[in-house]
Amino acid sequence: xxxxxxxxxxxxxxxxxxxxxxxxxxxxxxxxxxxxxxxxxxxxxxxxxxxxxxxxxxxxxxxxxxxxxxxxxxxxxxxxxxxxxxxxxxxxxxxxxxxxxxxxxxxxxxxxxxxxxxxxxxxxxxxxxxxxxxxxxxxxxxxxxxxxxxxxxxxxxxxxxxxxxxxxxxxxxxxxxxxxxxxxxxxxxxxxxxxxxxxxxxxxxxxxxxxxxxxxxxxxxxxxxxxxxxxxxxxxxxxxxxxxxxxxxxxxxxx
Length: 255
Description:
This protein is mainly α. It contains ten helices and five strands.
C-alpha cells in the first residue's frame, strides 16, 4: 500500500504514484481523518492507529524537501484533521532564533536576499541540508534541504500555502516562508543551475527555465510574512551582513 511492490500496477509505477499522491493532497479532496482511520481499522484490524500516520508520511515523503522523515514532529492520529493537515504538521520546526538587536543590523536590508548567482558572486557557497526546511547559514555557506521538482510540485505547494494562509494559528508560516526564500534565490535559470549543481534542487522537469518559472509563479499573489514573523529572518540577516562586510573590505568572490 505504501511503497512500490513487484507485480502491483499501481504502487510499482512512479507516474501513477505521483498522480495519486497529488490528488490525495488537493485541498478540495480532503476527507475527515476519522474516516480514513475507520477504513484503515477495517483493512488492518490488528494495527495501531498511530502506525497509519507513520505509514502515510513515508508514502508522501518523496514529494517534500529533505531526505528523512522528521519523526520528532509526527502528529498523533487523534489530532489530524485530514491528510494535508498531517503532512503540514510534520514540517513544523522549532521556534526560530531571536533576531539580532536593531543596533547589530543597522543599515542592513534583510527583507529579501539576493539571487543565488549574486550570492555566489559575493563569495557565498551553497550546500545540501538534510533537515526539512532547516536552512542554515554558517561560515559563508548556505545549506538548504534538497527538493525534487516534478510536474505536481507547483500544485502541491499551492495547496499547502492556501491551507496555511486560511488556517488560524499558523505562525510562523513555514511553507509560505520557505517559498519566499526560494523565490528570492531563483530569478533566472542560471540560479536554478547553481542550486541544482549543489544538490539543493533535483530537477525532475528537465528544464531549468521551467523550474525558475514555477518558483516565481508560486511567489505571486501570496501574502508574505512580516519581518518579525518570518521564519528565515535570521538567515537573511546573516547573509546580508556577510555581503555587507565583503563589500566593505573589498573581498572578492571565490571562483
